[in-house]
Design brief:
Number of strands: 6
Shape: globular
Largest sheet: 6 strands, antiparallel
Order of helices and strands: EHHEEEEEH
Helix content: 10-25%
CATH architecture: Alpha-Beta Complex
Amino acid sequence: MAKQTPKSPANAAPKPAPPRITAKTPKPPKGASKPPARQRAKATLLSGGNPQIAKADGDAPVQAYIAAMPGWKRDVGRRLDEIIVRAAPGVHKAVKWNSPFYGVDDGEGGVAWFLSFHCFTKYVKVAFFRGSSLRPLPPGASKQKAVRYLDIHDGDDLNEKRFADWVRQASRVASEQG
C-alpha cells in the first residue's frame, strides 16, 4: 500500500513569501541639475465646473485656478484678473473656498477682501462684497444686503470700463472700511 502524505490542517499558516529584492535608484550627485518637473495633474472640477484649488495666498494659486477654469470661462477669468490688477494696483490675491479673492490693505496689517469670482455651469459669478456701495449698482441682488453680483455668460460682452470702475470703487470702499 502506498504511503499517504498527511494533509495540512485548514488553519495552518501559509508559508511566508521570500523577501523581495529591489534595486535602489542612486541619488544624483550634489550640484547636478534636476530632471524636468513632471506635468501637474489636472485640477479637479467641482459641480458647475468650478476648479478645486487648495487655499493659499498670492498670485500663483489664483493663476492655477484661472488655468483650471474650463473652456470659455478661462478667458473670462484671465480678463477679470487683468482688469482687477490694472484697476487696483497692489491688490492682494488668494484662493479661499475654491474661488479667487482680491483685496487691499485694511490699514491694520490685514487684508480687506472686496471681490471674488466663482464658476457655475453656465456662467461666471463675480461677487462685490460691498457692492451696494457701488454706482451704478452691479445688476445682481443678493440675500446679503451689502453684496451685489455680476453674472457673465458665454458670449456676453463685458463692459470693461464699467467693471474697472466698479473694481476701483470696491477697492476704495474696502480700504476705507477695513
